[in-house]
Amino acid sequence: MEMDRLTQRLHPDYIKVSRISGCLTNLILMIGSAVYLLIALQKDWVFWPGWIALCIFVFTFVLFTWIVPVVEYERFKYEVFEEEVEIRSGLIWIRDVLIPMVKVQHVELESGPLMRRYGLAEVKVVTAASTHRIKGLKQAEAEQLKLQVGKLARVVEADE
């Protein structure tokens, strides 16, 4: 059996950030459904659209607050090699992407308010075809990864 060559993982604090984000999003949607139900009560509208929306948002609240963050944390792995970056991700369908250094156009570092609160950042590896994200890294680790990929991408281009 082949040993997994991907060893780098997200920081465990990413689970907290993902849970808080999912919680906030779904709470806003549930409040919207509750407001609809209150207005429907006053205006004598039908209640079923509000109840259906509320049930869906309660389901997605549980899904995106408790289940998805843990599965995403468990399944996401990456590794930087001299000639490529490999990223494995996915919840149901596992996606394994190999990004050749010669295709890397630039590398970005991004951190929203919630991620900054926990000292986390996201590294974006940009090619002509798409942008590949490695999110949930500690700020210092993300900065180091950005510099490492940037340096390797330039070295490979200079050798050709």
**Gyration radius, to the nearest Å?**
21 Å
CATH superfamily of the largest domain: Pleckstrin-homology domain (PH domain)/Phosphotyrosine-binding domain (PTB)
Q: Averaging pLDDT over every residue, what do you get?
A: 91
Write the element-wise H/E pattern from the N-terminal end onward: EHHEEEEHEEH
Please give the domain count.
Answer: 2
What are the segments in which pLDDT stays under 50 over at least 5 consecutive residues? none
Structural class: alpha+beta
- Distance linking N and C termini: 36 Å
Query: Strand fraction band?
Result: 25-35%
Which overall shape is indicated by the principal axes computed on the Cα atoms? Answer: elongated
Total helical segments = 4
CATH first level of the largest domain: which class? Mainly Beta
Indicate the CATH topology of the largest domain. Answer: PH-domain like
CATH architecture of the largest domain: Roll
Task: Give a quick summary of the entry.
The protein is of the alpha+beta class. The chain is built from 4 helices and 7 strands.
What does this structure look like?
- With 160 residues, this protein is of the alpha+beta class.
- The chain has two domains: 66 residues; 82 residues, Roll (PH-domain like), CATH 2.30.29.30.
- 53% of the residues lie in helices and 26% in strands.
- It has four helices and seven strands; from the N terminus they run βααββββαββα.
- Strands 1-2-3-4 form a four-stranded antiparallel β-sheet.
- A hairpin with a 3-residue loop joins strand 6 and strand 7.
- Helix 1 packs antiparallel against helix 2.
- The radius of gyration is 21 Å and the shape is elongated.
- It starts with 7 loop residues before the first strand and ends with a helix.
- The model has no long low-confidence stretch (mean pLDDT 91).
